Each structure stands twice: as structure tokens, then as C-alpha cells.
Amino acid sequence: MRYGQFCPVAKSAEILGNTWSLLIIRELLLGSTRFTKLQKGMPRISPTVLNTRLKELEANGVILKRPISGQRGFEYHLTPAGKELAPVIESLVVWGMRWARDELRSDEMDVAFLMFDVERNIKTEELPGGESVLCFQFSDLNEYKKWWIVCEGNTRDLCYEDPGKDVSAYISTTSHELVRVWMGDVSLSDAMADERIIVLGDSLICKRFKRWFPLSPAAGIPRPA
Hints:
- The chain is of the alpha+beta class.
- The protein is 40% helix and 17% strand.
- Strands 5-4-3-6-7 form a five-stranded mixed sheet.
């Protein structure tokens, strides 16, 4: 969209105002560089739209597309102009937590994005040595009711199909409840005390649940009175 104004807000909006563009910047700032990884952070974007937005951002000097050495495919990286958007995204996080999410609709409880966000934030150093398989079970879903996160060392692998491994711990709840806890709307301690979240399995993993399961980085943002 062209606004026909010399105002820098208008010129910025012409580059960043298209659907999904700011979320692509968000994912790149969080370390996603591959097309498939970007899709995991935006499960509802179509490959065609993602490809279009990446081309637009590249044409406007916000990102660079580079071939992967010795492999097929490409990686996407922020240019200096793109990196300068970090405080803009951080400000949107704060503003959005304070003013834009009083009532979340049921169609916004995106379990695929939730689980991807959980996976990339898990504190693997708080898990026992060796492989830990964490199975999240959502009683309110008909599809994608179970998700597995396989952790070993610093590596994590998110699966929505059974990886065929022995499960170390089960986390049972509803998608709505875990979103509310993840975003800091509900106390994790209260949710566990009321058995809205139940953790069963390896005793050490269960005992350390609050240590390896961090809340969203945005959860601590204070809400308006």
C-alpha cells in the first residue's frame, strides 16, 4: 500500500504494514533463519504468502537471502536496517501485552505456535543429563492433542507425531490454560495447585518443572491497573 505521504511513519508502514511482515521480523530476531523454521513460528501463514513477504522485505533492504553452504536451500538474515527494528518489536510486545489482549478469542489459541514458543525457550540445563522426552497433552483439542519435545543437551526437537521414544514426563492440561499460564495471565503455581496443569513422570523432571518450563519472555510485563 502507498500512502502518498513523505511522513516517515507512512514510509515505514509501506514497508512493514503488510500482513505477516512484522511477525517475520519477530521470528528473525528470535533466531529463525530457515523457511521451515519461519513457518513454525507462523503456522497459519501459507508458503506462497511467506515467500512473497520475504521477497518484499529483501527488496526493501530489510533482510538478506543467502544460499546455505554445501546444502540446498537458503537462509534469511536481517540487514543493519532490519536489526534496527529490534526496539520497535520490543515496544510492540510491551504495548500489546498492556493494551491489545484483554480478551483472547478461542481462534487465537494457536497450539502450534504455543508449542514452538515453549520448545525454543525450554531451559535444557535444568533437565537431567541424557535424553528427556516431554509429552504435552491437551484435553480440549480434537486434533493435535499431543505434542512431544525431545531434549538432549542443548538440542530440542518438537514433534506433533509420536517419535516412538519413552516419555520422561507428561504435562496434562488444556491449550487455553497453558496459553494463559505461558503469557503470565494465570499463576503457574495456582494452575498446578488446582490441578489445571498436572505433571507426571520422572521425579526430577517433575520437581524441576518450574525451572525448565519458563514463561514467555513477555509474561512479566506489568498490565495497566
